[in-house]
Design a protein that fits this description.
The chain is an alpha+beta fold and 562 residues long. The protein contains 14 helices and 17 strands. The strands form three sheets. Strands 3-2-1-6-5-4 form a six-stranded antiparallel β-sheet. It has a six-stranded antiparallel β-sheet with strand order 9-8-7-12-11-10. Helix 1 runs antiparallel to helix 2, helix 2 runs antiparallel to helix 5 and helix 12 packs parallel to helix 13.
Amino acid sequence: AERQKAEVEIRQRLVVDQALAAISTRMMQATDIQKAIDEALAVIGELTNPLRVYLFRFQEDNQRIKKTLEWCAVGVEPVLGEVRSFSVERVQWLVERLRHEGSFYVEDVSALPLEVQEEMAIFVKESSGPQHALPIYSGEDLVGFLVSQGSHLSAPGSEQNLEVLEVVVGMLGSLWQRERVLETLEERIAARTRELSAFFDLATLASRTQSLEEILEPAITRIISACRCDIICIHQYSEDGKVINLVAQYNLTVNERQSLQEVLLQDNYAHHTKALLDPLVSTNLAQESTLPPALRLPGYSTYLGAQIRTRDQSHGTLSCYRLSDEGFALDEISLLVAMAEQLGVMVENYHLRQQTEEMAVLGERQRLARELHDSITQSLYSQTLFARSGRYAYEEGEDLKLKDSLQQLEVNALFALKEMRLLLFQLQPGDLENIGLAAAINQRLDMVERRLGIEATLQIDEKMTLPERAEESFYRITMEALNNSLKHASANQVSVRLQAEGVDLVLEIVDDGSGFDATGEQGGMGLKIMRERVNQLGGTIEINSRPGSGTVTRITLSRDEI
C-alpha cells in the first residue's frame, strides 16, 4: 500500500512537473504573450482544481489595474464580466497586504472586516470559498497579483498546489519583465530612429539655397520631432554681439514673441556664451540669473540653451523650454547640442553662399565688360571700316563695292543691336523667384527677341508647379538656348514650350535659323553648359539640327528625379 501510494505521488508529481515545464517553454518562446498567459491560467485550473483564477496587472504608474483575466472551472459563472480596468485604490488593502506579507489566504471572506469585504467584492461572490492571493514581481517592482478561489490549503495535496501557484507567479513576473524590456528596447530604437532622421533632415536643409529664416523654420520642426519641448526659439546675434534677434520659433504666444523678438544681453550671459562650450541647463528657470530676464519665460520650469556655433564663432542660441521641472536627460542634451552645432553649419553655409553670390555678381559684371569689349566694340569698329570702304566706293563710282559695303554695314549693325539687347537684358536683376518661370521667360522674349522683330511664342501650363531647383534650371537652360539662337542662328521665329508628358517634364526650344550639323560636333560653351545642367538634374537632352533647317532642343526630366 505504501509503495502504491508512493507511485501515485510520483506520477502526480511527474504530471505537475511536465505541465510546469510546458508552461515555462511556451512563455519563453511565446510570440503571442496573451495566449501564453491564458494557457498558464488553464494549467493552474487543471492542476489545483480551483473554482476561479484571476490575474490582475498594474499600469506602469501602479495607479490602475490595466488588465484583468479570469479562468473558471466548468459550470462556474464568471465574476469579473466586463471589468477590465479600475483604480488600485479599490483593492488597496489587499495590495498593501501582498506588498508587506508576500501572500494572503483566507478560508471565509465573511470573517474579514466589512470594509475589506466591500473591497474584495469585485471578484468575490457568495459561496466562493477560500481566497488565496499571491503577488507578482518584476525584479523588485510589484506589477500585479494572482487570486486562486475555492482551493483549500488544508486539503490533501495543498502543498503541491501552493508550489504550482508560486512557480507560475514567478514565471508571469519574468514574462512581464521580458515584455517590458522588449517594449523599452522598441521605444528606444524608435526614439533613436526619430533622432537620426531629424539630424539627417537638418543636414539636408543645410544644403538648400533659401533665406536664413526659410531654412531655420523647418529646422525647428525637425528638432520638435526628436525631443519633447513645449517651446523652441532660435536667436541670432547682432553684428555687435550685444543683442540676439528671434529668427525662428515654435509655439510662442504673441506676447512671448514680442518680448523675445529682440533681447538685450547682459554681461554674465555674454561671458557664458564666449567662455563655455557646454549648454546652459536649468530646472528652475525663474531663478536662473545667468539668463537675460526676457529669456526666463513665466510658467516654464526647465530650460536648455545650446550655442549655435562653428569652430570658435558663435552665431546664436537654440533655446528649449518645458513646462514641467523634468530635466533633460543626458542623451537629450547631447542630441540638442549636436543639433545646435548642425544649425551653426547651416548658418555658416548660408553666409558662405551669400559671399559666393556676391563674388558671382562681381564675376558677371566683369564678364559683361569683356563681352562689351570683345563683341560690341569690335562690331562698332568693323562698322567704321565698312562705312569708310563704302565712302571710297561711292567717290570712285564703284556701285557693286558700295552695295557690298552697305550690306556688311547692315549685318554688323544688326549683330551689334542683338548683342546690346542681350546685354541690357542680362544687366536686369533676375526676378524668377517673384514672378515665376512663365513670366520670366516671357519677359526675356519681350526685351530681346520681339524688339528685334523675331516672332517669339511661349507655351507653359500656368497650373504646373515645379520644385524651385527645377524651375531655376529650366530658366537657365532656356536662356542659354535662346542666346545660342540669337547669336548664331539668325532666326526669324523661335518658340519655347514646357509641358508634362506622363511622369516626365519636357522643355522644347525651336527656331527656324541657319542650324548646324548636330551629329558631327559637340557645340560651343553654351551647349556644354546646357548639358551639364541637365545632367545635374538626372535628365536627357536631345539637339536636332542640320544646316539650313533650324534647331530643336528637347530636354526631358523625370518628376521623380527632381
